[in-house]
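User: Round two. Same drill as before: sequence, then structure, for each protein.

Assistant: Same drill it is. First protein:
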Amino acid sequence: MPYTKRRRLVRTAVAVALGATTLAACGTESADSETESGPASLTYWTWTPGMDKVVDLWNKGPGKKDRITVTVKKQASGDTLVTKILTAHKAGKAPDLVQAEYQALPTLVSNDALADISKSVGEAKGSFADGVWQQTTLGTDAVYAVPQDIGPMMFYYREDLFKEYGLTVPTTWDEFAETARKLKKAAPDKDLTTFSANDSGLFAGLAQQAGAKWWTTSGDQWKVAIDDAATQKVAKFWGGLVEEGAVDNQPMYTPAWNKAINTGKQIAWVSAVWAPGTLTTAAPDTKGKWAMAPLPQWSASETRTGSWGGSSTAVTTDSKHQGAAAKFAAWLNTDSEALNALAKESGIYPAATNAQTSGAFLKPPAYFSNQADFYTKAADIAETTAPSAWGPNVNVAYTTFKDAFGAAAKNKSDFGAALKKMQDDTVADMKKQGFGVAR
């Protein structure tokens, strides 16, 4: 059965939710009690390029009217920013607003760093696909952030080389494997793609598409299922291709990978909507030779994709103007002028559905000028994003992935053992941190 919007509407709350005991202690200061007008001077920690120009629109428009001024403070991204936010929060000095990747939200919420802004931004829910909005609620009635950008996953391929070698764009993963083998037989010096152990987010997205739910809850305890059947299927599939040499086993984003993509040694890439920007730099000589298609499916009857990347705008519990901060967060990620500016100045792919086929997205990326319907197709794919299930120590799981899968890919050894190592390390760390973990 296709993964349709109807199915998303009737699914139960995603079990990434924190346990009831934990939630009772989190987000205790609520934006709901704060006024949404100024005067207020807010600080926003973000790594997005050009954000200061976008914020200027607020300060000169809605912000000026409501006497709410926002100042951008540029930060590093990823775990570095999460650590900095938590350090500042322990001292009671976190900024009013922070940019947070979706997988970081459970960590920030479990440390009581993010406010529940549900009553201030609840009307924004209709601007986002259900699978996207769900990532900011953690499966509860609370809302801990407003979605900003997303990374629905897609399949990219060299049209000219697919034609040259008589290849058909795969619609299932079985077809993908056969395509890799057919290419290797026709051109032993080429690879369809590579398995990159440096990219834990890619593997997580592939598992998400397969139906994985790595972190869920049972009462007030966490359940960790990184080695669930869905993820085992993904690991076995890619491990088998690496072992038989049907795909390469080298990491991405290296000079060698760039050269392989640019010269046609690798002729396809499992990536996300932001891929055109990367290809522009990595493979400048192949502009106009690539095309994008939906991700292959595990069953021909399915239509779903995973996510690789994406972030949100959250309000901290340390903010003395949570209502004002929430108002800005909603404007930044739902207002048409703000979204157009984010696309132009920051190059993001917006989470808001109405912005995905308007403004800057009326025309395809310059690199894909040969595919006029690029963003129309991308919006359709984004609508099929499967729900995610993040936990409070994603960083540990990702670090173990890089180490364990890195060794397995290099040695062409058992990916199943690497997956078990990822599971065991994640559970051990959660217990060490004091989280209740159900068997």
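Second protein:
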Amino acid sequence: MRIFKILAVIIILLGGAYAASMYYFVDESKNFTIEKEIDYPVEKVFVQFNNLQNFTRWNNFFTSSPSIDIDYYTPYEGQGSAISYVDPKNNTDGEMFIRYENLNKTLKYQLFEDENENPTLVDVKFKPVSAEKTKIIWYVHTPKLSVWKRVENFWTEDRFAENINKSMANLKNSLGNKVEKDNQMAAIKYDSLMVENEEDKLLLGINVSTSNKKDALYKNIVMNYNKVYNFVTMDLGKRDDEFGYPILITDADNYKDKEVSYFLGIPLSKKIGVSDNNFNFRSVNPSQNYVMYYKGNYEGRIRAIQQLIQKAKKDEMRFGDIRQTFIERPMEGQEVNVKLSLSVYK
């Protein structure tokens, strides 16, 4: 009995010492600033922050948990927009609001986590460094904590900084795909032969062999595109702004064959674990390409491919695979919008 009394006294003394040290030496709330730069113009960056549907697609706080469920509330972007979230796996929930917006300059967020009635306040400022670079500055003020919870302030800043680092990597990938798509659409000149240098790509897709009879090839492409798209979006959880246009790779002149073999893939930013053996990664090396854009029925692409091959032969260039980049997703019964790229070399 005496031992229990002694232990109780020790626990009370330790608790008192802990509470006193937290009260006198640890701030009840934290204020800190984090700065980052990203190589995109401010008008493209800002809309990723003031539109909460965009925001939750790249912010690591929301993307890191597969079990999180998010509800969005009108007006969906800008001042007055809000979300609520529940993550049963991690036993957390909360609400987030945009309380103030100054277009392309400032946003003020409030984040209520779990049952805490005091919000975390986050002011984000956007400063153009150049026409193609933006500085993002986070000013964070955490809610007041009781002396018993105040120890959390030791790691709050590090945890927030880690989340921002991961989020910025996601944002860079997302904006990269958006800008690439926008640039490709703006650069389209149909039926004109051009020369381009293409960077390396990493594709996740499927290898296929199929009949080249009338309409059979295109129907097969549509079917396999849907397989790859569904796998990337549903099984891997990728959103449309996280990957590029689908690319079909095949021999340049196999349009004459009775059977066609091709690889159809979707560009991703990095390799990830894939459990389904039907899908595999393929690296596309940098190359110089003869390029034509074509819009029409799929059979009509053959004439454009022939022009690319004739140009390569005339220039005494050897050529490799031809890549068909679908600017618009292939759909049965509809015309295609494709970029045809013939890799050439001496």
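DSSP finds seven helices and 15 strands in the chain.

User: Perfect.
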